[in-house]
Every structure is written in structure tokens, then in C-alpha cells.
Amino acid sequence: MSKMNKQLLHNIAITCLPNIGAITAKKLIAYCGSAEKVFSEKKAALEKIPGIGKINAQHIFSNKKEALKIAEKELPFIEKNKITPIFYLDKAYPKRLTHCEDSPIILYTKGNMDLNTQKVISIVGTRNATDYGKEFCEKLIADLAPHQPLIVSGLAFGIDICAHKAALQHNLQTVAALAHGLDRIYPNQHGIIAKQMQENGGIISDYKHETNPDRENFPKRNRIVAGMADLTIVVESSKKGGSLITADLANQYNRDVFALPGRLNDEYSEGCNWLIKTNKAALIQSAKDIEYIMGWQATTEKKNTNQTKLFVELSDEEKTIANILSVTDKIPIDSIALKAEFPMSKTAALLLNLEFNGIVKSYPGKMYKLV
Predict the structure, then answer these.
(1) Which of 48, 214, 304, 315 has its CA 20 to 30 A from that of 56?
(2) CB-based contacts of 295: which residues, under 8 Å, 6+ apart?
(3) Dihedral of alpha carbons 212, 214, 217, 222, sign
(4) What's the whole-model pTM score?
């Protein structure tokens, strides 16, 4: 077995250990140095790792042979089906997702995609989409097309598939996060669309092949939809459902959430109206709301001054941004937002104010540097 395949084998195998989730697995890899070293480490040494203890060490020691056996079955499937696995420490892994504690150890991807493109939008909603919801979704994506965002959704009936189709129509990258392995498409009626998406985007999953689209997998999948995007837009939703789970996750990850309002007595607007009412989402009426709140059309013209204000004159939030910029060279806005743990809209507003006051300079590609 080649060195690369051996590394991949262990990267997959660590996800196959029972009772060892992504958070614990990352801790093990950090202390041991690699997934491969986790499997070769002595049980006594594993027990000494903070947060692992005797029980987890025993789980690893007792199940590592079976985990490697399961991982071995995945390698030929990956090769035969041209799957690209992305480990959470790889450069191609969605950088926005790395700031989510429970992000997957490994993503299985198929297609032609850049998961770290400048703007990423997740669009979710009910499977029972109305004409009102679908028309809004189509127009929104058409109006946002000049920004060339990556559109993320879940390939489900209703709003999801509407978003994917609209993205394809406007030649935008679109990616579906699936709740099962890449050996199937669910629902199978969307197989043709999924294949078209792989030319400019594709399908991703953290589930191995032969994993069924079981009900409990969908809420887990939603952490990818929420975590890899700058913002999540809920187009239509009942008062319960996966869309509200995705919105809640996005809020937990300090990402911006938007919701389309509807009439009070419309079943599939209840969820959106509730998000807006409880300040869990901003009301959205058009693409202009996104552009304004996210700062996507903010001017880069700055005041005629070269004098940097003393940090003591800045607000606490502005100091946070300035401190991040003070220890690095040019840095993209999404990385600033993730490091500061601010929503993208707040980060854009703070950067714009700092720029106007001659403290920050902007560069092409939404890069920023302290003056």
C-alpha cells in the first residue's frame, strides 16, 4: 500500500471507531500527530490524553482492527468512482467549516468544486415549496449571480432543488450536501440534476458508501450546510423541520441567517416568521438586502488620511478586528469573521468603518491589511 493510501486508510478508519466523534477524534490527532499514530499508540498513552480517559482509550484499542477493516472497503470505492476525499487538515477542506467544532473529519466529494470560493450561500427550505417560495428563490439567485457565489443546499424536493437548478441556470457553482453515501442519490428523481452539478460544483458527504439516507442522518448533514457558508437563507419553512435546525446551527456558528417572511396563516411561512420574530434571522425581501447587510457592495474609497488612530479610540469590536490584522499580513474577510467570531455582516461593517478612518486598507478579493 502506498504512503498516500495508507494515510487515507487511517484518516477514514478514525471515523469508523464507535463512540469516537469528530471532536474527540480531532483531539486524538492533535496529540498523537496523525490518525495513523492514533492507531499505533499504546493504550496507556491514549488514556493520558486530556479528555480521552480509560473508556475512550478502550474503545479505540478494542475496535481499531475492525475500523481499519471497514476503511479498507472504502478505498476501492473511492478509486473506482473518482471520489475525492478531503481531510479536515487539507488545504481544500472548507475553511469556514474548520471553525465549527463538530465539523467532519473527512468529506467525500465528487465533482468540480472550490469549497473556499470568496462567497458561499446556503439556501434551505421546505420540501413542500409554494410558487411564492420558488419564484423568490429563482429571482434571488438570478440577482445574486453577478457576485458568483457558491450555492449550497441539500438536493431535497422543494426549495433545495429549486436553488440547485437556478444556480445551474446562471452558471454558478452549486454543491449538495447529502445525508448518505455517494453510491446513491436521494431522492433518485434528482439523479440527472446531481450529475449536471458535478460539472460546476458537485455532491459532498461525510458518510461512507453503503450508508442509507436514514432519518437521523439529515440533521447531522445540516451542520455542513450551515458551517461551510457565509450565510444561510431560509426561503420557506413550517414551524418544525430541517430548515430551522440548519438556521439554528448557522446562528451557533456565528453566521448570518436570513428568512423570507410570509402571511401569518401560511403553514410554510410559520418557521420563517418565527425566525424573524425571535431575531434569529434578518428579514429578506430581495438580493439588495444581502448585498447591504453583507457589505458586498461597500465602497472601498477611503478618507484622505494616513494617520492611524490609537487603539484606545476604537470600540471593543473594532479592537478585536485590529488585533487580528496586527499579527498577519493580508487576510480575507471570511477569515477575519471566523477568527473574531462575528457574523459576516458585522465584520464587513466594522472593516468599512476602520477603512474610512484610515486604519485598514482593502485589496482586491476582499483582502484586508492594517495600515
Answers:
(1) 214
(2) 344, 345, 348, 349, 351, 352
(3) positive
(4) 0.83
